[in-house]
Amino acid sequence: MRLNLNADLGESYGAYVMGNDHELLQLVNSANVACGLHGGDPHVMTTTLDLAIRAGVSIGVHPGFADLHGFGRRPMQLSATEIRAILLYQIGALDAIARGFETTVTHVKPHGALNNMACESAELAAIVASAVRDYNRELILLAPALSELAAAGERAGLSVALELFADRRYSDSGHLLPRSVPGSVLHDPQDCVDQVLAMVEQQGIVCHSGKCLPTCFHSICVHGDNQDAVATARLIRQALTDRGCTLLPLPQMLC
Amino acid sequence: MRLNLNADLGESYGAYVMGNDHELLQLVNSANVACGLHGGDPHVMTTTLDLAIRAGVSIGVHPGFADLHGFGRRPMQLSATEIRAILLYQIGALDAIARGFETTVTHVKPHGALNNMACESAELAAIVASAVRDYNRELILLAPALSELAAAGERAGLSVALELFADRRYSDSGHLLPRSVPGSVLHDPQDCVDQVLAMVEQQGIVCHSGKCLPTCFHSICVHGDNQDAVATARLIRQALTDRGCTLLPLPQMLC
Amino acid sequence: MRLNLNADLGESYGAYVMGNDHELLQLVNSANVACGLHGGDPHVMTTTLDLAIRAGVSIGVHPGFADLHGFGRRPMQLSATEIRAILLYQIGALDAIARGFETTVTHVKPHGALNNMACESAELAAIVASAVRDYNRELILLAPALSELAAAGERAGLSVALELFADRRYSDSGHLLPRSVPGSVLHDPQDCVDQVLAMVEQQGIVCHSGKCLPTCFHSICVHGDNQDAVATARLIRQALTDRGCTLLPLPQMLC
Amino acid sequence: MRLNLNADLGESYGAYVMGNDHELLQLVNSANVACGLHGGDPHVMTTTLDLAIRAGVSIGVHPGFADLHGFGRRPMQLSATEIRAILLYQIGALDAIARGFETTVTHVKPHGALNNMACESAELAAIVASAVRDYNRELILLAPALSELAAAGERAGLSVALELFADRRYSDSGHLLPRSVPGSVLHDPQDCVDQVLAMVEQQGIVCHSGKCLPTCFHSICVHGDNQDAVATARLIRQALTDRGCTLLPLPQMLC
Fold first, then answer.
1. Residue in B37, B68, B74, B79 to test binding to D, most D beta-carbons within 10 Å
2. Which residues in chain B are contacts of A131 at CB distance < 8 A?
3. Chains contacting B with at least 3 CB pairs below 8 Å?
4. Cα dist. C128→C115, C131, D40, D43, D47 in Å?
5. DSSP letters along D116-180, please?
6. D101 lies in a domain?
7. Given an 8 Å threshold on Cβ–Cβ distance, is C18 in contact with B14?
8. Residue A143 maps to which CATH number?
9. Cβ–Cβ of B71/C15 closer than 8 Å?
10. Is A253 within a domain?
């Protein structure tokens, strides 16, 4: 069995520190790196790539809405031209910094509200997928399993890596329960491990009701914005390797 | 005789309009396009590239300090790592948007305080030149004649296009007279034309004192942030073509 | 007959110039001054107040959403605490700059999407009105006639100045026709004058259909972001004074 | 003996958390609250004032340069008009939010580079002092002992509270040793306590060399941007109260 662990990283901004990038980079296989619009800045991007390269972690673009104050979590109604523009902008910016290290970005995963909206709107998902493809058709699109975004990536001819969340409960339709629903976010590291193992065993999304929606998947997203999350990532990594799972960066995972 | 006319464009931001991009794009051969840190935004960059491509104008990156409020005109003391990061970021961002139009950027010209500082500091100039080269050694560096930036570009193995200013007086050392010196900025379009023609005739920088500093040059920068500037650009273009000068985009100019 | 002419001013930002403040200040009686969140900055606010004071124009706060890139025109979903915070922040900031000139602000008029949303939501309108009152119960609330915002101002015990728009068509419900509806924005200065005169004569909102919604009103808003708008303001001013109307700043108007 | 403990607070921004405001507010007597230009935002300001009021901590304005990315720590060359504008803006903004709680700000302490520059330049210090006075001559200016800023406050007729730093070494001239000098920042909480007690005992600045520069002082600044700092603040508070020192908010301290 092969799997990938991914995390959102490089979201600090100037003097503002967000997350535990250094520790998480020792635990995950692929990093989704913020690009300066919802978080991150050119210097933070450089530092993050430097650390990721040393840790053997594959580098992805994590483009978000241009909304530092809202951290890209507020829905914004933009035209198709604007969506395409902010995607190309952020992909190119991070890829250039990667090129400065003689490497390249290998995947794209939208951030926050942009990701949520693209998971539900086939139209928005198609704009995202075509921007990624038009930049580089070799890029992997990292998208939630059973989402419109994943479907749009397939239609655009991209390699799509499907992800599941370790710390979020799912509804029977395969969507994340909103954060406002009590119990929708798992805080106990052991609960997260149990959910991941159940999904691995049943090969699908194990919903809050116990129902299983069968789907293949390639990656588990671990969030990293508190100390618990580092502990959670460590436990998940351990549990998977204990069961003989090989953890790989996304490009190797999809080979 | 062959020459290039260049102008800074795409500096609008959201609802804020700067310059007369549409008119200037009919007059110049190469556009230096802002990249969202000192001016411009992803949507403005897209619109500007669309217009430039239709006008047959070659596209350059115009990277500046991350200072929208100061429009990149305030000196900032950044580390070498930070300077390299903001350059790669902006070059990559614009190049990605160009790739969305199935084209590519062909030159880089730093903006404002970053440009001024790199023209005087060999150390800063070397950082700029190596960032450009590490992104793509085919990129042309557009730099003021007789500047440290031009010298650093040559040392880095880049093609360097040397530029002169139509509307600024020069000191005997070949530097621009500061804007604070009365008469340092030429407002009368005919004065600008006269200065350009004198430089073409004497093949060098004609200083305020009348002294000529011999230098080859490839491009004339015309500023575009007021209506007079459009008139000036039109007059210069006319005067040069009247004298049999062929006006070319930068890549063709340097062939 | 007494009336007030008001305009949105001080919306420039750093090197970005917006509007024709200098000319409009010679024509209107009250200025709604941006406060640095959707437009304007502390220096522009200072310059604008200096000009307004010299012109004998009364000064109002024009608070908007914290969205420079969208110029405060994009709807944002904020909590009641956040709305109250951005209102107090902007009112206090401008009033302090006024105090630096030994004067004070005398009215508040929300900007853009914040204004539109407060005109339709009684709940949001109440938050706005109470923030204004809690800062200073002597402040005048400048609000569109027949809006929820005007009603909330009355309920909060504020003096409310009711405004009509010179250059926008109204639906039969007394709301502005959306800008997307052809003909909803009047571009011809004479059309604007005709609408204002009809409203003055019929003492109410003259809708696009010809229907009149009777309402008292105290102020006419003239927009100032293009040259035509200055011409329009001049024509309206002339037409009103020709008919014997006395044009007054808001505090004198409501005495 | 009476003293005041002050700390910089409210420097978080949107989703970005800075410092341990909640814990520090239980330990200090006066809070210097960021105002949205170098850190903080209207919502954070509101939350911080709410906490400070509950904790019985007096509220001061902590105005900085408009430089979120540099956290107000980068020197900026602004005109006198601009300096005055950013001071009035920030003082008024925070005071308005205080007014929303039916209270008021009672002191001003500039932040970061603005503070450092005003401590060394009599001209800049005079601009700062007159802006504070012109807003409200009852405001206390909190300034480092022996600084140009303190002198300018006196000359402007303001009440000046003089502060010393617990965690920074001083040169023989009474200036802080630059952070670049090894040992200039004290990290061990006990070292900070020892320095404070030596200053209290010798009634002056105890320099790195051991020399004492006699000066009266009213307040000790404790920094709060890491866990150690909370421990340091707690130890200093304990050591001072153990020695019979009464710790007071600034207005009571200066009565």
1. B74
2. 100
3. A, C, D
4. 9, 5, 22, 15, 19
5. HHHHH-HHHHHHHHHHHHHH-TTPEEEEETT-HHHHHHHHTT-EEEEEEESSB-B-TTSSBPPTT
6. yes
7. no
8. 3.20.20.370
9. yes
10. no
| SS3 call for C189 | helix
Q: What distance in Å separates the CA atoms of residue C172 and residue C157, rounded to the nearest whole number?
A: 28
- Residues in chain C, how many? 255
Whether residue D126 has pLDDT greater than 80? yes
| Residue carrying structure tokens 């902590």 | D62
With CA atoms as reference, report the closest residue to D8 among D18, D16, D92.
Answer: D18
Nearest in space to C161 (alpha carbons), one of C89, C94, C249, C235: C249
Pairwise CA distance, residues D199 & D188, whole Å: 17
With contacts defined as CB-CB under 8 Å, which chain D residues touch B76? 74
Inter-chain contacts counted by CB atoms under 8 A, chains A and C: 6
Residue A225 lies in a domain: yes
* Contact residues of A toward D, CB < 8 A: 13-16, 18, 39, 41, 68-71, 73
Question: Cβ B100–A89 below 8 Å, yes or no?
Answer: no
Distance (Å) from the alpha carbon of D203 to chain C's nearest alpha carbon? 38
Alpha-carbon span C44 to B198, nearest angstrom: 41
Å between D78 CA and nearest CA of chain B: 10
Chain B partners of A97 at a C-beta cutoff of 8 Å? Answer: 85, 88-89, 92
Query: What's the distance, Cα to Cα, between the start and end of chain B in Å?
Result: 14
- Beta carbons of B69 and D69 less than 8 Å apart: no
Three-state SS annotation for A122-147: HHHHHHHHHHHHHHCCCCEEEEECCC
Token digits for C104? 């004070």
In a domain, C254, yes or no: no
Average pLDDT, chain A: 96
Model pLDDT for residues D58-114, shown as the tens digit of each residue: 999 999 999 999 999 999 999 999 999 999 999 999 999 999 999 999 999 999 999
Chain D residues with CB-CB distance to A under 8 A?
A: 13-16, 18, 39, 41, 68-71, 73
Residues composing chain B: 255
Q: Which domain holds residue A20?
A: 2-248
Q: How many folded domains does chain B comprise?
A: 1
* ipTM (interface pTM): 0.96
Q: Show residues of chain D in contact with C77, CB under 8 Å.
A: none
Instruction: List chains touching C (3+ CB pairs under 8 A).
Output: A, B, D
Q: Find, among D9, D3, D64, the residue nearest to D38 by Cα.
A: D64
d(CA D182, CA A145) in angstroms, rounded, equals 53
Q: Which amino acid is at C146?
A: L
CA closest to D99 among chain C residues = C135
Which of D68, D74, D79 is the best residue to mutate to test the B interface, defined by the most B CB atoms within 10 Å of its own CB?
Answer: D74
Written in H, E and C, the secondary structure of chain A is CEEEEEEEECCCECCECCCCHHHHCCCCCEEEEECCCCCCCHHHHHHHHHHHHHHCCEEEEECCCCCCCCCCCCCCCCCHHHHHHHHHHHHHHHHHHHHCCCCCCCEECCCHHHHHHHHHCHHHHHHHHHHHHHHCCCCEEEEECCCHHHHHHHHCCCEEEEEEECCECECCCCCECCCCCCCCECCCHHHHHHHHHHHHHHCEEECCCCCEEECCCCEEECCCCCHHHHHHHHHHHHHHHHCCCEECCHHHHCC
Q: Which residue of A has its CA nearest to C78?
A: A74
Give the three-state DSSP class for C33: strand
- Per-residue pLDDT of A143-201, as tens digits, reads 999 999 999 999 999 999 999 999 999 999 999 998 889 989 898 999 999 999 999 99
CA distance linking residue C106 with residue C95, whole number of Å? 9
Which residue from B41, B81, B93 is facing A92, i.e. has the nearest CB?
B93
Residues on chain D touching C137 (C-beta within 8 angstroms): none
